[in-house]
Every structure is written in structure tokens, then in C-alpha cells.
């Protein structure tokens, strides 16, 4: 199963890039001109993302560098420790929705220190892999189209982060614990 | 809420920096974060330019519409407001399948393109539509079959079974995605109850009426 999926992953992009223009060519689409026409939008879209992304990353960066994030993590950790959850993985719950690179760095460090096949390593890998960085996704997607009022999207994203975090820990404790 | 979180992080950061005597780190973090934002955006240029080009070919050839009508029922359950056969559906599907395969640098451009198509259906350009919120819910939870980065890291640190987390990750991400869809549904219903329904966005659909930008479907050929 795993090998089949990973094979699919590695073939997907090359197949798409070959098949789409080939199919279009048979439909008499001027493929190269069409490509260039569509690609023109790419630069503008990337530039439109800069202001919201800079704003958001500055706030996150300040929050981390000031020691506020560490304090908050130290505050939450003892509360959940009683449930048999290794306290080392708890900061990930807070880090994951805020910063993708930050939580990846933290996960890598846990794997390095405790070993990839330890319970901590398994839980951390599962948490890291199970959701995306909510704040980043919101900033980029809304930023690209200039939507300022995201309505309930942030609440939904953060809620699913919490559910994913709890589920990752519970499932790992059941399977590997 | 986003305003509160943004301001909150800065103000709380300031207070902690003051107490911890980390004012220099605070300043460094500001410019570090700003630089990071620009770097990430610039890093997106190459994939955006390339994928938007490829996706335009798919759109011009009618492939996107074909996929959209083939898999339409799945999408129309999640996105009831998007008219059938609208190009947004093709992009949403591409975004979902790229996420599924763990192709992050293809998923983002397709997701952004889907957002741009959804924005064309949006009567109020500053405010997200329910369909946009659903797309974001799917992307923040991001169901992934293969967490490729983590497998690579685990391999790197000598794991006996680097792919051992595939099952647990899939289970956890499925739970998170279901939770996201359920919460999205709930909020959508609540927001419909709160304000009387506006005329459905369908009318704005495929006509290019009032669009100042280039029409999304090419008129060539």
C-alpha cells in the first residue's frame, strides 16, 4: 500500500506536466502561448501575498523571540502531563498552527534527541504530518485574492488543529503506547 | 478575530520582551520575520508561474471542465454554492488531489487559483464566501496520504521503519479533516441563520459581466 502510494506521488507531477499539454495539443490549443498567458499571473499573485505574509510572520517571530511562546508552552505542559502524554510533544500543539518551519524544526529536534522510533518521535511525526500551518494557509490564500474579512475560516482551522493534535496523540498512544 | 490575534501576538511579545529584557531580540525578530515573509513569497514565484501556466493549458483544452463534471457530485456536496461546471471546481479538485499526494508546491498554486475563481463569484470582494471558507478548512487540515518530508527526516535519523507513521498520520489527518468539514458546516449554517439569505451567487456565475480583469476562459481557437 505504502509503496504504491509513494510511487503514485513520484509519478504524479511528471505525468501531469506531460499529459496536460499533450491532451491540449490534440484539442488544437496553442499550448506554448497558452502556458505563457497563464504563467503571467504567477508573479502578480506572489507579490500580492507579500504584505499579509510579512505582517503575519513579523507578529509570529516577535511572539517567539520575546519568550512569550516558551512561557505559554511551559504553562500548558503540566496540565496535560497527567494523561500519560509525553510532555515533550505538547509545545507542538501550539507551534503547529503558527509556524510550519518552527514546528518542523522542533519535530526534527525531538526525533534527533529521542530517536525516530521512540513514542515521542512517533507522536511528533504524526502531529507534524497530520495538519497544515493554519495561519500560513489563511494568510496566503486570502492574501492572494485580497479578502480581508475571513469570517469563520480561522476558527474552523484552529478547531481542526486542536482535534488533529488530540487525535494524533490518542491514536499513537493506542498503536505504539 | 485575525486582528485580535495579530495585535495580541505583538503586544504580548512586547510585554514579554520588556520583562525578559529582550528588546534587541524583539527588533531583530521584526526584521527577521519581514525578511522571511518576502523570502517565502519570492519562493512561491517560480511554482506559481509554472503551475498557473500548466493549469491555463488544462483550462483552455477543456480538461478542467471535464474533470469538474466527472467528479462534480463530490465537490457540490462540499461546495453547494459553486455552479456546476464552473472552472473553480476543476481547481478545487486539483488542489485536493495535490494535497492528498503530498505535493505541497503544486497544491498551493492550485488552491490560490481556486480562490481567484471563487472570488469571481463573490459579490463582496473584501469578505470571504462560504465556499472560500470550506476550501480553507480542507487546506488547513490538509489530508495527506504520504507525509514525505517526515519520512525523509525519520530515514535520516536511522529509523527502522520510516514509513511507520503513515497509518497514524492518515488516521489523525482524516479526523482533523472531518472535524474541519463539520465545523465549517456548522458555522455556515449559523451565518445563514443570522442574516437573511442574499440572492444566490449563481447569477454572477459564468457571465463576464462587470469583470475588469481578463476573462478567465480564453477566447482563442
Description:
The complex is a heterodimer of chains A (177) and B (221). Chain A has 177 residues and is mostly helical. Chain A has one domain (49-176). Chain A contains eight helices and no strands. Chain A has helices at residues 2-26, 31-65, 68-81, 90-98, 100-114, 119-130, 134-145, 153-176. In chain A, helix 2 (31-65) crosses helix 7 (134-145), helix 3 packs across helix 4 (90-98) and helix 4 runs antiparallel to helix 8 (153-176). The two termini of chain A are 24 Å apart. The model of chain A has no long low-confidence stretch (mean pLDDT 87). Chain B is mainly alpha-helical and 221 residues long. Chain B has one domain. Helices cover 69% and strands 0% of the residues of chain B. Chain B is built from nine helices and no strands. Chain B starts with a helix and ends in a 27-residue tail after the last helix. The model of chain B is unreliable at 202-221 (pLDDT under 50). At the A-B interface, helix 1, helix 2, helix 5, helix 6 and helix 7 of A face helix 1, helix 2, helix 6, helix 7 and helix 8 of B. Chain A: This is Spore maturation protein. Chain A: Residues 48-146 form the Nucleoside transporter/FeoB GTPase Gate domain. Chain A: Keywords: Membrane, Transmembrane, Transmembrane helix. Chain A: It holds the Pfam family Gate. Chain A: The chain crosses the membrane at residues 7-25, 45-63, 156-176. Chain B: InterPro entries: Gate_dom.
Amino acid at each position: 500500500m505504502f509503496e504504491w502510494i509513494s510511487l503514485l506521488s513520484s509519478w504524479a507531477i511528471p505525468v501531469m506536466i506531460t499529459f496536460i499539454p499533450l491532451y491540449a495539443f490534440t484539442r488544437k490549443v496553442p499550448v506554448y502561448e497558452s502556458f505563457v498567458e497563464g504563467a503571467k499571473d504567477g508573479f502578480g499573485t506572489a507579490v500580492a501575498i507579500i504584505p499579509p505574509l510579512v505582517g503575519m510572520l513579523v507578529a509570529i517571530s516577535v511572539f517567539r523571540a520575546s519568550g512569550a511562546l516558551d512561557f505559554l508552552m511551559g504553562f500548558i505542559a503540566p496540565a496535560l502531563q497527567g494523561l500519560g502524554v509525553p510532555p515533550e510533544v505538547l509545545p507542538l500543539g501550539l507551534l503547529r498552527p503558527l509556524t510550519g518551519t518552527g514546528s518542523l524544526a522542533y519535530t526534527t529536534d525531538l526525533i534527533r534527541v529521542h530517536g525516530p522510533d521512540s513514542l515521542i518521535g512517533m507522536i511528533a511525526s504524526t502531529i507534524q504530518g497530520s495538519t497544515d500551518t493554519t495561519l500560513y494557509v489563511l494568510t496566503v490564500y486570502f492574501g492572494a485574492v485580497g479578502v480581508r474579512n475571513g469570517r469563520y475560516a480561522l476558527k474552523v482551522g484552529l478547531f481542526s488543529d486542536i482535534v488533529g493534535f488530540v487525535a494524533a496523540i490518542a491514536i499513537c498512544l493506542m498503536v505504539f503506547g | 478575530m485575525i486582528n485580535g490575534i495579530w495585535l495580541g501576538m505583538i503586544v504580548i511579545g512586547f510585554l514579554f520582551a520588556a520583562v525578559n529584557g529582550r528588546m534587541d531580540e524583539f527588533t531583530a525578530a521584526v526584521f527577521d520575520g519581514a525578511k522571511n515573509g518576502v523570502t517565502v513569497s519570492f519562493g512561491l514565484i517560480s511554482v506559481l508561474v509554472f503551475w498557473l501556466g500548466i493549469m491555463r493549458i488544462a483550462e483552455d483544452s477543456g480538461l478542467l471542465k471535464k474533470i469538474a463534471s466527472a467528479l462534480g457530485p463530490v465537490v457540490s456536496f462540499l461546495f453547494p454554492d459553486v455552479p456546476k461546471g464552473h472552472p473553480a471546481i476543476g481547481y478545487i479538485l486539483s488542489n485536493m488531489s495535490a494535497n492528498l499526494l503530498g505535493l505541497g508546491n503544486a497544491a498551493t498554486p492550485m488552491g490560490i487559483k481556486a480562490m481567484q475563481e471563487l472570488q469571481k463569484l463573490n459579490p463582496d470582494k473584501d469578505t470571504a464566501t462560504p465556499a472560500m471558507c470550506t476550501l480553507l478548512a480542507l487546506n488547513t487540515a490538509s489530508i495527506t496520504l504520504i507525509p514525505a518530508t517526515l519520512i525523509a527526516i525519520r530515514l535520516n535519523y536511522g529509523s527502522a521503519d520510516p514509513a511507520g507513521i503513515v497509518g497514524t498520520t492518515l488516521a489523525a489527518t482524516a479526523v482533523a479533516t472531518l472535524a474541519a468539514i463539520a465545523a465549517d458546516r456548522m458555522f455556515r449554517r449559523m451565518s445563514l441563520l443570522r442574516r437573511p439569505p442574499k440572492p444566490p451567487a449563481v447569477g454572477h456565475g459564468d457571465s463576464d459581466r462587470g469583470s475588469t480583469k481578463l476573462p478567465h476562459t480564453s477566447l482563442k481557437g
